[in-house]
Amino acid sequence: MPAGPGVLARVRGASLLAPGVGWLVLFFVVPLAFIFVVSLGSRDALDRVTLANPSLENYVRAFEPRFIPTFLNSLRYAAITTILSLALGYPIAYWISRYGGRRKILLLIIVMLPFWTSYLIRTYSWVILLRDNGVVNSILQAVGIIDQPIILMNTDISVILGMVYGFLPFAILPLFVSIDRLDPTIVAAARDLYADGRRAFLHVTLPLTMPGIIAAALLTFIPALGDFVTPDLLGGPQTTTIAKNIQELFLAGRDWPYGAALGFILMAVTLVGTLVALRTLRREVVGGD
Amino acid sequence: MTRERNRWLSVYALIVYAFLFAPIVVLIIFSFNKARRGLVWQGFTTDWYPKLFSNRELIDALVVTLEVAVVAVLVSTILGSLLGLALARLRFRGRGATETLLLVPMVTPEIVMGLALLLFFLQLFDAHGSLGQLWIAHITFCISYVAVVVRARAASMDPQLEEAARDLGASAWGAFRYVTLPLIFPAVIAGALLAFSLSFDDYVVTTFNAGVGSSTLPLYIYGKIKFGVTPEINAISTIIVAVTAVFILLAWRFGRLGGGREERPEEPAAEGPTAGGQMAEGQAAGR
Amino acid sequence: MTEHHDRSSIDLEKELTRYMIERRVSRRYLLERIALVGGAAALAPVIAACSTGGGSAAPSAAATPAGSAPGASSAPSSASPAPAASPEGELNILNWTDYLADEVISSFEDLHGTKVTQSFFSTTDEMYAKLGDDGGDYDISFPISVDVPNMIEKGTLAKLDKSVLTNIGNLGSEWQDPGYDPGNTYTVPYMWWTTGVGYDPARLKGETPASSKALWDPRWAQHISMLDDWQEVFGLTLIQLGYDANTTDTKQLDEALALLEQQKPLVRTYSTDTIGTMTSGDIWIGHIWGADRFAIQETIPDFAYYIPEEGGIKGNDTIATFTGSPHPVAAQLFINHVLDAQNSAQNTNLIYYMGPNEAAKEFIDPAILEDPTINPSADIVAKLQELLALDQGVRDEYLSRWQELRG
């Protein structure tokens, strides 16, 4: 559906796109190309990158069995975090939109406010809450639900909790912008039509807010896949992620070419997976963009 | 029936906000911890607050962080919003490629992006990190997030509205300013909020692009891990929260930052003259 | 990598010679640098010095060893002459946060009329990435001893000007000629440490372990922590098995890996945030650096530390300046400043790590000085092994096993 008469629309289109695309090409694609070239190189004896014998060897080497468990970890955490963030974020985005009135944006800012403190201190605060003699365990014991403290820190539980905590706003905001577009009269009409609130939700509200859901899923899943700090600080021996492996190869291993290759493979897998998912979703969902 | 469901929803919202703020409450409490290092409460003191004001490096770091974040948010919000709008509304040949281009920064591991930018600036400009480099780096990783959020909003917007405005005699800019912009405004704000949070707390990309005199708060704080993180950090975080809370309170009382229609809660159908327009819009959107 | 500028108007040969004399670099070194970094980049400081009329380098070279000190007050330090103002006026340090005492920095600023700017990193590998091949914009940083030989070979480190380093005599005799940098030509040792085992006696119910095997004790399952450092962890394990901590024998590495895999279900976390983890209360016994014990004792007063009877690890870092440093004179002055007995003591008293400074001992907090785990006697020190810089291939062997363990 064209958005106006021919030439003008093209000019307008170009002016909308050019700055952003231009910026990304110059300051993202070009630097990425540098690292790509690095991935084709190797190290000299002093750990400096040399392009003497460019090859795809690092990419071949990247398919090591020891990276599989960590990749699966990353995948698992990202998937669970996304699902939980969407599920938990949708109702609150709905609430802000419906009942926020004039103060909707303020309520959104309040959602973001915790993240304008230091990430490290927030993590320490979670340690204080979740450790064996921490707040959560103390409360559970005081109330009588448990006798001995349960191990919460350095487990999958603490990692997922930390990741959901970190990504929830990334889900709430895009969900909100889409839910906020909902016409309440449509929702009311749907309820009359379907007589059952749940079906009204499933058949009308949900599809109408699909762009927001897709955006929220993107903004949660993709960064979560690359998050290594949260599993590192809140996790234990079993929670290592592929992102941490990549980081280690660059820094501790001083092997930039190898790290770069592994990084690019992760990027390619994530990108392809995301694009496939997006195409599938868009084909199936009417009205979504 | 509606009232009960609404109450549950409000209770739920309260729980979520409590969840979001639980660690913050802990953080604030521990800013009064007497212990210099460690995670155990050892008594109450307010000493950390005056101490942090005489900590030149900490204050400098905060200032740099804000300098970076403000510029990053401004530029990335503008560029990202334009991109998001274009992707949502226009059909053009490079559309798929542009969408992919948008996704790649998000897909890139932070260490790869940080070192890529470091190499770029080092090889091309012999630069070793600076405030300007940080601006560029932060803008770059924020654009995608803003674009995705604005796109989601613009995607559910009826393009016929803008056309209608044009038909009624508005110029291209006028149609944009009076029709499109207000409609996507909440998304622009949401994108800006996300961008600010991303920039404020960024570590990996920042550490490889910061130079002398451009250390940010995260860099200062993470450097403390080795020898013990002191409650000064809690104190400065508390101050940030307090200052922002004051602004929010003021805006709550006096501002008009709703961005939404002037609805009275729980009476969605009770709108007069605009109901017709919304109906038409809703019907068109619900195709 | 090449820049094209018109430099034909400058007599390059003459300027090069003058630059080399002022900066006391050899012709060979300059040529090496040009080859490494690219012509224009290497010559840039020369050109810059030329265009500012010989710049700051010339007068300082004459002034530093002598005592002409315009406007500088003399400091209460033991062995330095009347200090000179550093002509560059600025100094950039790349550092852990809080690794230099505030007083040491401010006294340097006052003494030499120099503004000090610190930048930070949180892991040693990050430090090296930020320093790059010539130190970037940084004048001072703290490379670990084992990484020094490589950095010397790469031409990253700048030679020390011994005429400026009048305090160098303060170093203990064992530090005057270290293996990694003979004669302290490029670096000066900064702090040294041991790595061993720390525990909370209350949690271990009165037990006093002495072996690193205590970290494998199933009674403390889920309350054990290990360092998130592949070289330290493998070092400890190899020593426990009776091998060299820097072995190149892959069969020995496999044995170590097997032992570590056995330990893994008992380990709560692998972390270098020793102070955070040990004070959280969840960890009862952990693999830690010795000096951290004092910091932990601020929270857990009875916290104990021991060097395993099988043997432990020792290490040290150094303070160094770089070939690309923008303020080389100030850097040398600063290194000398740190070598001062009282300044060194102030640093030790802040971070609890022991310095190599013999003369400083009279100013160090006695609790630290008398602690046999921070300041062990010579015979214990003899039992400690140092983690060396491994060859690339060997390092890959260690790291791949480490990643397998952590996966």
Mean pLDDT of chain C: 82
Greatest interface (CB-CB under 8 A), with counts per chain? A-B, 116 and 123 residues
Strand content of chain A: under 5%
How many DSSP helices of chain A?
A: 13
Beta strands of chain A, count? 2
Distance between the termini of chain C: 39 Å
Percent in strands of chain C: 5-15%
The largest pleated sheet of chain A is described as: 2 strands, antiparallel
Rounded to the nearest angstrom, the distance between the terminal CA atoms of chain A is 12 Å
Percentage of residues in helical conformation of chain A? over 70%
Q: Residue ranges of chain C: pLDDT <50 for 5 or more in a row?
A: 1-12, 34-81
Describe it.
The complex is a heterotrimer of chains A (289), B (287) and C (407). Chain A has 289 residues and is mainly alpha-helical. Helices cover 73% and strands 1% of the residues of chain A. Chain A contains 13 helices and 2 strands. In chain A, helix 8 runs antiparallel to helix 9 and helix 10 runs antiparallel to helix 13 (256-284). By secondary structure, chain B is an all-alpha fold. In chain B, 73% of the residues lie in helices and 0% in strands. Chain B has helices at 2-30, 48-53, 56-89, 95-107, 110-125, 131-155, 159-167, 172-200, 204-209, 217-223, 232-254, 274-285. The radius of gyration of chain B is 23 Å and the shape is globular. By secondary structure, chain C is α/β, with parallel strands linked by helices. Chain C contains 16 helices and 9 strands. Chain C has helices at residues 12-23, 27-37, 39-51, 57-63, 102-112, 124-131, 148-154, 230-240, 250-263, 274-280, 292-297, 328-339, 341-351, 366-369, 378-383, 392-406, and strands at 90-95, 115-120, 187-199, 224-226, 267-270, 285-289, 304-306, 313-320, 385-386. In chain C, the strands form 2 sheets. In chain C, strands 3, 4, 5, 6, 7, 8 and 9 form a 7-stranded mixed β-sheet that branches. In chain C, strands 1-2 form a two-stranded parallel ribbon. Chains in contact: A-B, A-C, B-C.
